[in-house]
Amino acid sequence: MNKIMLIYASKHGSSKEYTDMIGNELNIKAVDIDEFDSVKKEDFDTIIFVSGVYASKINKIDKIKNVFNNFKNIIICPVGFSEYNENTKKNIESNFTEEELNKIKIFYLRGAFDYSKLSFMEKMMMNMMKKMLKKDPGEHKEMLDAFDKPISFVSKDNIKDLTTYVKEI
Ligand SMILES: Cc1cc2nc3c(=O)[nH]c(=O)nc-3n(C[C@H](O)[C@H](O)[C@H](O)COP(=O)(O)O)c2cc1C
Predict the structure, then answer these.
(1) Each residue of 84-136: pLDDT tens digit?
(2) Which GO terms fall under molecular function for this chain's record (predicted)?
(3) Residue whose CA is closest, atom 28 of ligand 1?
(4) Which of 47, 59, 68, 104 has its CA 20 to 30 A from that of 130?
């Protein structure tokens, strides 16, 4: 196995939960993205970045993009509430250029939603979204229900494909 750097950015905890699971499984220590600048990148050849998805954007992805060239293997784990489908895939991929997509491997992990934990600004955003979703609830029922009752899809089963892949590179 390569020398791996495990980095996370987590606003409300689910990316951190996944990071702890990944760290335990691969026996590596995780580093918060806010301490990333002080880590010696040249000591590693693989980076795993676990981070929440907000309005289709992977939180703090730009910090990792700045150092793409330092690593042989770049693994991105976006953590979002949406179920994984073609639309989710497209939204996640829109965070990257074609050239970047050729360099990285993406493992989407399903996260959690707890309205009570959100900041004032996030609550405002989500209230606007709720109004829109209510007009066409269809496939958004899970999201609408989550406003009244916190829900988490975080599970150790979800990291299996990622850890199997990492152990083989
Ligand atoms: C303001 C806001 C916007 C969000 N936008 C998305 C989104 O575009 N797609 C998605 O799948 N999940 C979205 N989510 C859900 C988060 O990605 C989910 O809660 C995730 O578990 C957050 O991870 P973290 O707590 O580690 O930051 C959003 C949540 C909030 C509060």
Answers:
(1) 999 999 999 999 999 999 999 999 999 999 999 999 999 999 999 999 988 88
(2) FMN binding; menaquinone-dependent protoporphyrinogen oxidase activity
(3) 54
(4) 59
